[in-house]
Amino acid sequence: MAKIGTYSTATPADADLLLGTDAGSSDATKNFQVSAIRDFLISDTVPATAGATGTKGQLAFDSSYIYICIATDTWERAAIATW
Question: Which structural domain range is residue 27 located in?
Fold first, then answer.
């Protein structure tokens, strides 16, 4: 197996796996699909209210706003405008 430093830089495909951790598991090392991480972090399903279910770091968007979950179940949004 090559050292990490010897791998070329490439954009991962949706089905590629990334190594990560799951702090809530006794077996903390996990493989995550790129698509699952992308879909968790950036979604076009927006929260209905500022107190909607969410995890800190999640992002969502629609044609008017970008939504950012700043704490568990706490969302803020910023208007989108052309410039």
Answer: 15-79
| Count of structural domains within the chain | 1
Q: What is the DSSP string of 52-79?
A: SS--TT-EEE-SSEEEEEEETTEEEEEE
Q: What is the pLDDT along the chain (83 residues), one digit of tens a residue?
A: 445 555 555 566 656 655 565 666 666 666 666 666 666 667 778 999 999 998 888 888 889 999 999 999 999 999 999 88
Q: Is residue 23 part of a domain?
A: yes
Query: What span, in angstroms and rounded, lies between the C-alpha atoms of 73 and 12?
Result: 30
Cα distances from 5 to residues 2, 9, 34, 45, 62, in angstroms, run: 8, 10, 20, 37, 38
DSSP string, 12-28: PPTT-EEEEE-TTSSS-
